[in-house]
Design goal:
Pfam families: ABC_tran. GO terms for molecular function: ATP binding. The protein is α/β, with parallel strands linked by helices and about 400 residues long. It has 2 domains: about 220 residues, Rossmann fold (3-Layer(aba) Sandwich); about 80 residues, Alpha-Beta Plaits (2-Layer Sandwich), CATH 3.30.70.980. Strands 5-6-7-3-8-9 form a 6-stranded mixed β-sheet, sandwiched between helices. A 4-stranded antiparallel β-sheet has the order 11-12-10-13, with helices on one face. Strand 6, helix 5 and strand 7 form a beta-alpha-beta unit. Helix 3 packs across helix 4. The two termini are about 70 Å apart.
């Protein structure tokens, strides 16, 4: 059992933990919750003798951690998954810990199998992902088969399968009569894992109770009631009836009614007596996250605010061309009817020189030719005025044909 009495820790002028008292009993998973900067990590460090309390005392089984005989065989902990020499393999890291604590070498291979790292046991830990590092840290905590276990954010970086494995592992260890103390910010996971909660805020105790009692004490249960959408008069009638019976009725954004102060059977009876047909009558219980946010909203040290300069940001240009880079000026767009589109390249008509458009002067396109040529002008004059088109033999036809012999596509 872990017991803290009047635990206080100051760092200069800052008080990280103040007069904190609690007990972590065996046989249950105890969750340790609190906002960032509330003193959770500092408390765990004092439990493990890494920091000395300014005042008060914390013991494990009635003894200070420093006075425990062969502490690694009695207490296992994961506080920092990165506290590993990157040049050592996973097996050598565990083997060095085992030799320091007098643990048989066979136990190293056992815990590697428990955490699923037997396939990478010979690889250096510096190449491990965050989730693999977490598994290695859990293996180190289990190495001495201890009766007391402390975990700080054990599911950080794990995939869904790993999170489920950690959850089942915690429950199994607690069912064996061990003391399991877990700190986490994942409320949904803590709701599925923990049996008891210890909540602190700004270094002081805020709650020490079961998870069921914590949710009930920090949330307001209500009933959701819905009537047919096409009968607003029945909705108003039911609202009046429930209010006169002592209930509090609030409209929901989706058209339902939130009713507090009345039990579900009483709401059903009142609706029946008022001849109101119900489409929905369901209880709603707050989640652990809702209860936690409601309790700790006044103990949060770090709050985000709206960016006061957000309105100064430049809006992106309306043109969203493929491969467009910042500062790139897009070409002027032309109507689709004037420019045939086929991806980014419009092939010329059959038999036409693809470079003729670039060589032809722009004047004839802007000034249309007269409908009838003057009779006194030679017939060959208009032809002589325009450049003669290149002969088909001289056209660079080979440039319009793509050699696909080495094209990877």
């Amino acid at each position: 059992m872990i017991e803290a009495v009047g635990l206080t820790k100051r760092y200069g002028a800052k008080t990280a933990v103040y007069n904190l008292s609690f007990q972590v009993r065996p046989g249950a998973v105890t969750g340790f919750l609190g906002p960032n900067g509330s003193g959770k990590s500092t408390t765990m460090r004092m439990i493990l003798g890494l920091d000395r309390p300014t005042a008060g005392r914390v013991t494990i089984g009635g003894h200070d951690f420093r006075n425990l005989p062969n502490a690694p065989r009695q207490v296992g902990a994961l506080l920092d998954a990165k506290a590993v020499h990157g040049g050592r393999s996973a097996r050598n890291h565990l083997l060095s810990l085992a030799q320091l604590a007098g643990i048989p070498e066979a136990r190293v291979d056992e815990v590697l199998g428990v955490v699923g790292l037997q396939g990478v046991a010979r690889k250096r830990s510096k190449g491990f992902s965050l989730g693999m590092g977490q598994r290695l840290g859990i293996a180190a905590a289990l190495l001495g088969d201890p009766q007391v276990l402390l975990f700080d954010e054990p599911v950080n970086g794990l995939d869904p399968e790993g999170i489920l494995w950690v959850r089942n592992l915690m429950k199994m260890l607690a069912s064996e009569g061990r003391t399991v103390f877990v700190s986490s910010h994942l409320m949904s996971e803590m709701a599925l894992t923990a049996d008891h909660l210890i909540v602190i805020g700004r270094g002081q105790l805020m709650a020490d109770m079961s998870i069921t009692d914590f949710i009930s004490a920090n949330s307001a249960d209500f009933a959701r009631v819905r009537v047919p959408d096409e009968t607003p008069e029945q909705r108003e009638k039911l609202t009046t009836t429930l209010t006169e019976a002592g209930g509090q009725v609030m409209p929901e954004p989706d058209g339902a009614l939130r009713v507090t102060g009345l039990a579900l059977p009483r709401i059903s009876d009142l609706a029946h007596e008022s001849d109101v047909r119900l489409w929905e009558l369901s209880p709603h219980q707050a989640s652990l996250e809702e209860a936690y946010m409601r309790m700790t909203q006044g103990a949060v040290d770090y709050r985000s605010t709206a960016d006061q300069k957000a309105h100064l940001q430049q809006q992106p240009p309306p043109y969203a061309g493929y491969g467009q880079q910042p500062g790139y000026a897009p070409p002027p767009q032309q109507p689709v009817a004037d420019v045939p589109q086929q991806g980014w390249y419009a092939p010329p008509p059959p038999g036409q020189n693809p470079y003729a458009a670039a060589q032809a002067p722009a004047a004839p396109a802007q000034a249309p030719a007269p409908a009838q040529a003057p009779t006194d002008a030679p017939a060959a004059a208009p032809v002589a005025a325009a450049p003669a088109p290149a002969a088909p033999a001289e056209a660079p036809a080979d440039l319009t044909k793509r050699d696909t012999s080495e094209d990877p596509r």
